[in-house]
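wait is this the right file?? whatever heres the structure
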C-alpha cells in the first residue's frame, strides 16, 4: 500500500524479462504499480526484476514470477498464487510472443511451425486471459492489453511472416471477442501495436523500446470511460 492509503494496482506482464515487456514493467513500476514480471526462465525473471528494482525513480515493486504461457497447468497455478497473495488483478498485459518469421512464405511454411507460433501468440494469451478474468472482475479498474502488431492488420497485410501475421490477426480477433464479453464487467480490452522497436525480435533500426512500451502503458492506464475492443498505436486507432 502506498503512502496515500490506496492499494497499489497489481499488474502482470508476460514475456517481461526483456524488450517491450521488461520496459513496460519498468514504466508501470514507475507509476507505483506492483508488477508481476513473468518469464519462462525463473532466473531471467529474477534478474530482470532485481535490475528494475534498483532503477532510479521506481515507486512500485517488481516481483519475479515464472510463467510459460503455453503451460496450462502453470498458468492456472500462477492465477491461484496471485489470488492467494493479492485477491485480485488490475492489469493483464499479454506480451509474450515468438517467431517473427521473415524468411517464410504462406505457400511453403511448415504448418508445425505455424502451430507452435499460435500456441504462444494466440492460445497462450487466450488461456492466460481465461485464468485471470475472475481476478480482473474483482478490480475497480480492470484492463487487458494484448500486445499485437500491424503485421496482423488485415487492411495492411501482404505476403511474408505468415505464422506471426496470422497469429497476431487472430489475437486481434480475440481482443474484440473478449472486449464484447467483458464490457459489462468494466474490463477494458484493447490490442496495441508498439510499432517497429529495436528489440531482439524487431532488430536494430527501430524506435527506442521506451517508445513502444509507452503505447502499451497508455492502454494499461486508460480511464474508465476509455475505449475497449480497439486496436491502437501511440493512442491512435489502427485499421483492423
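ok assuming it is, sequence goes like this
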Amino acid at each position: 500500500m502506498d503512502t496515500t492509503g490506496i492499494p497499489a494496482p497489481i499488474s502482470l506482464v508476460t514475456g517481461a524479462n526483456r524488450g517491450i515487456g521488461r520496459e513496460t514493467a519498468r514504466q508501470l513500476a514507475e507509476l507505483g504499480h506492483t508488477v508481476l514480471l513473468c518469464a519462462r526462465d525463473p532466473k531471467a525473471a529474477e534478474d530482470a526484476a532485481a535490475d528494475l528494482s534498483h532503477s532510479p525513480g521506481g515507486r512500485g515493486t517488481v516481483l519475479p514470477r515464472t510463467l510459460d504461457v503455453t503451460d496450462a497447468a502453470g498458468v492456472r497455478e500462477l492465477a491461484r498464487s496471485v489470488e492467494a497473495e493479492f485477491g485480485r488483478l488490475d492489469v493483464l498485459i499479454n506480451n509474450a510472443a515468438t517467431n517473427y518469421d521473415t524468411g517464410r512464405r504462406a505457400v511453403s511454411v511448415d504448418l508445425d511451425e505455424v502451430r507452435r507460433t499460435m500456441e504462444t501468440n494466440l492460445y497462450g494469451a487466450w488461456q492466460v486471459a481465461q485464468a485471470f478474468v475472475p481476478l480482473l472482475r474483482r478490480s475497480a479498474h480492470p484492463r487487458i492489453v494484448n500486445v499485437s502488431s500491424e503485421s496482423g492488420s488485415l487492411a495492411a497485410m501482404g505476403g511474408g511472416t505468415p505464422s506471426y501475421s496470422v497469429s497476431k490477426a487472430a489475437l486481434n480477433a480475440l481482443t474484440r471477442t473478449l472486449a464484447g464479453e467483458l464490457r459489462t464487467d468494466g474490463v477494458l480490452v484493447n490490442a496495441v501495436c508498439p510499432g517497429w522497436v529495436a528489440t531482439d525480435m524487431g532488430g536494430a533500426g527501430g524506435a527506442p523500446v521506451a517508445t513502444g512500451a509507452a503505447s502499451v502503458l497508455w492502454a494499461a492506464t486508460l480511464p474508465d470511460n476509455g475505449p475497449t475492443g480497439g486496436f491502437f498505436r501511440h493512442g491512435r486507432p489502427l485499421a483492423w
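The first strand starts at residue 10 and ends at 13. so i think its the right one actually
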